[in-house]
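Homework help board

Subject: predicted structure for assignment chain

Our instructor gave us this sequence and asked us to write out the predicted structure in token form, then describe one feature. I got the tokens but I'm not sure how to describe them. Can anyone check?
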Amino acid sequence: MNSKELKEESYENGSKGTYLSTFPITPKKQTLSYVKLPEYD
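My token output:
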């Protein structure tokens, strides 16, 4: 599973909700990964 590719796609869509919904298994860990990318904030 290309999690990185999915994350970038969700960012381009401009929908944080979609990004979190893509990873319902570990939303907390994925949220931390999201915060680590300042270029999207």
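Reply (TA_rk): Your tokens look well-formed. For the description, you could write something like this. Residues 25 and 31 are 12 Å apart (CA to CA). That's the kind of observation they're looking for.
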